[in-house]
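From the methods appendix. Each design record in this collection lists the tokenized structure first, followed by the designed amino acid sequence. Records were kept in a plain field format so they could be parsed without special tools. The example shown here is representative of the layout used throughout.

RECORD:
FOLD TOKENS (240 positions):
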């Protein structure tokens, strides 16, 4: 997932290539203090706030991206400055984070989950997948209709806040699972069903309450109409 920037490289003076000795020294000193720090940034939404309407309304998208996701990024950076978690990417960090490291767990999960969520939706989405993804779905679930039923049931079945996922496991098989809160299947120290998420639906009330109130099922069926299947297939191929 994009969005990781080494702090050290951001503050290293551009003149550090050795034209002036003092400036080069300053750069090295700053580098050595911050070399292991990662600072994540909020990725831009890849389309306009109103691009998914009427399925997902513009105000929900704006608040969800600009406030909720931004908050996860801000709190993740703070938590990482206070917590020792190994990893040089968000995926690496999530694979190492433990249940009691709640700041990194909740906000790192929040950052990864939402970054994926924006990408697997789009204004030209919906319909059915094709090609290799459709073949894999047919192999593992029998048909696209059977997949849709299972995925929607997993999303409806999340008690309280959480996510439902389509993932690739270590055997390169597709599977559907769900996780509470901002956990996800990358968290191998925390969740039981682990794998690489390639599609996810946010079923926190903040994802749908303005437009759908308590009707989570209506939100889920509308979400199916904005899935960017080409992106999901790209995610699958990157992990198979
Ligand atoms: Mn959310």
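DESIGN:
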């Amino acid at each position: 997932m994009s969005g990781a920037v080494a702090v050290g490289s951001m503050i290293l003076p551009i003149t550090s290539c050795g034209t002036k000795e003092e400036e080069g020294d300053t750069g090295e000193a700053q580098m050595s203090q911050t070399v292991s720090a990662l600072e994540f940034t909020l990725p831009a939404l890849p389309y306009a706030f109103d691009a998914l309407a009427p399925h997902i309304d513009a105000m929900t998208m704006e608040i969800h991206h600009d406030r909720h996701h931004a908050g996860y990024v801000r709190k993740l950076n703070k938590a990482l400055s206070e917590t020792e978690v190994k990893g040089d990417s968000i995926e690496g960090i999530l694979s190492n984070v433990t249940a009691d490291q709640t700041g990194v767990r909740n906000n790192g999960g929040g950052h990864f989950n939402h970054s994926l969520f924006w990408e697997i939706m789009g204004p030209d989405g919906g319909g059915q997948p094709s090609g290799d993804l459709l073949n894999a779905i047919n192999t593992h679930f029998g048909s696209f209709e059977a997949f849709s039923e299972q995925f929607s049931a997993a999303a409806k079945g999340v008690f309280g806040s959480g996510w439902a996922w389509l993932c690739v496991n270590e055997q390169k098989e597709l599977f559907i699972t769900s996780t509470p809160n901002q956990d996800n299947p990358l968290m191998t120290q925390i969740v039981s069903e682990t794998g690489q998420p390639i599609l996810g639906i946010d079923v926190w009330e903040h994802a749908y309450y303005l437009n759908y109130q308590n009707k989570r099922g209506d939100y889920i069926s509308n979400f199916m109409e904005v899935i960017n299947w080409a992106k999901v297939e790209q995610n699958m191929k990157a992990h198979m």
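APPENDIX NOTE: The chain has two domains: 6-119, 131-237.
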